[in-house]
Amino acid sequence: MNAWVLLGGAIVLEIAATSLLKASEGFSKPLYGAAAILLYSICFWLLAFAFTRIPIGVAYAIWSGIGIAAIALIGYLAFRQTLSPVQIGFIALILVGAVGLNLTTPPSSDQSGPDQRVGTGSAPE
Among residues 59, 48, 53, which one has the least CA distance to residue 112? Predict the structure, then answer.
């Protein structure tokens, strides 16, 4: 499967899990907490596979950046949490960075085979 699709799935699951974690109210609602743990587990599993094809710094920055922006929006819409204009500006900068990393990551990093990863394959002749 395409590593970018796996990364997208990990992002969606992380956002859902974080929202459920907030809804669990400090695990006082155990079903929400258990669902959050399950979704985080699947999220990290997908993220680990994405790391095999996308550089770890790029994948992690995109994963966390989009997650931060989405959770800030969900916090505002679902949990009525406010952000100052300065905070919104900084979140926008995070999104610009995540998009920039995505746009500047060569497609070949997603298509590299196991022999092109660090620590595997044969030495050049």
Answer: 53
